[in-house]
């Protein structure tokens, strides 16, 4: 699986008024864990799943966009 694209995800969050603290609380992890996930230094499954649930583009999460 490709790495998540942290910069694009951060920009996507900012455009929606969502902070990394919001993501951390919702995913049940520390803010620093979210930061490490977006930097690619931690496994991001919990964070990735939450971001996908709130509509983050799957391409940013290292997943392939399914054909329509």
Automatic annotation (TrEMBL):
Pfam families: HTH_3 (PF01381). InterPro entries: Cro/C1-type_HTH, Lambda_DNA-bd_dom_sf. Residues 9-61 form the HTH cro/C1-type domain. It comes from the Bacteria. PROSITE patterns: HTH_CROC1 (PS50943). One of its GO terms (molecular function) is DNA binding. This is Helix-turn-helix transcriptional regulator. It comes from Desulfolutivibrio sulfodismutans.
